[in-house]
Fold this sequence. Notes:
heterodimer; A: 5-stranded parallel sheet; 5 strands; B: alpha/beta
Amino acid sequence: MTEAKKSAPRILVADDDPQILSFVKGILESAGYEPVTARDGKEAYKLLQSEDPFAVAIFDIIMPHIEGRDLVRYMQTERRLMKIPVIIMTGDLSSRLSSDSFSSGAVAFLPKPFTDSQLKTMLRMFVKGGTAGK
Amino acid sequence: MNIAGFQNNEITQAARPRLLLADDSVTIRKVVELTFADEGIDVTSAPDGAAAMTKFVEVQPDIVLVDVGLPGTSGYQICQMIKQDDATKHIPVILLVGSFEPFDQDEAERVRADGFLTKPFQSIRELVARVSELLTPEERGESESVIDLEETQRHIEPGVASLGGESAFESLPNESTSPAITENADIENLYQNSFADTAEIEEFDTVEDLLGDAGLDDELIEASYQRDSDNAGIEEIGASSETPPLTKDFFWTPSVDDSSGDAVRVLENPSGVESSDQSADGDILEGFQPGKGPADDPQATVALAEPTPEYIALVAQRVVERLSDRVIREIARDAVPRIAEKLIREALSDEKKA
């Protein structure tokens, strides 16, 4: 199990809603990923700066301290971080919010509520060597 | 442009280092603020050149990050201003260069930037490491060793001169504690004074020529004491009469010249030279009357230079017997020139009589 975790792609998940965080974490673990969770944008940014690059980052768009869109912008200031695909989760489906997210550097937009298969499908698109859906 | 209002503010260990970031990108400013907040560094940001200079004076940062493409005053210009001002040139400046911005390496060197980093950064840790390195005195010392050496020399040289000047004044009471370098400086000064004075004296054939019409009035004598207060008088006498230097040994064993008249005969008196008996000393000094004995001698003028050091030796001997070694030099400095000049006056009087 330990060896499997070592080789599993690491996924950063940031959301201030504990239920969402727990839900996503469960999906990721079941799909063979290694989830790393953060309760707000600042904690997520610290993890991004201090740890090895993640395979994918999943951010809620509204978070304390640093919003998801800003996190994506900040990631564009570092070459090592700008390569990380970012998926934005949101309950607000306005087109403006969506376009803002993409212009910031996000690669995908995941509307709430979503199912585990929707998340797994999206992760398969961005994670090379991932085990999601198998 | 002078960075008016900036005062050199040394970094103290207790104070948090201050970083000034000048960049028109809100994202860069936010990232740098967030990043360095965790590093214990206070960040102040400015979006353009004018604000950057205002903040620079206001904050007095310990390091500056500036975008070369800054609106208004460019990053190069800001760096140049900082490096041109003596009060601020020690502050490290890192230029930030956008990937699509033209970067002039020669210009960066000309304005003496301490480094540059391209945006986006490979990793923000790279920036943190560079800033930490430039804020660490040891690291800065290595990178700026050449400049530091030059500056150090400029500061040290006047310091030594000043130190030498002061110790020349202070070393007399207790020479044992004087630094070697200042002692050498004193000796050099003595030689310079001695040679100058000696050459002056030797230009005159007779004492009269030396003294001139004014003679040796009290003012002149007093002035000579002041002039000789730096020990030059001792060297002067030793050099002009070609006698051994007036050391402690000389005082104890004065050289004797048989052709020197009464003074020599007095010196030959064993009780005078070897005894410390005060009555004997008194006899010696009473017996020596330079104003009378050599006066009748046709060789008086020649003898003038000869008895002088011996007579000085006698006086010095008496001083040595009664006082500790520590004050020998001070007494000699004062007494020897006085006696020598008295003898010159006596000899001058004899010359005039003859």
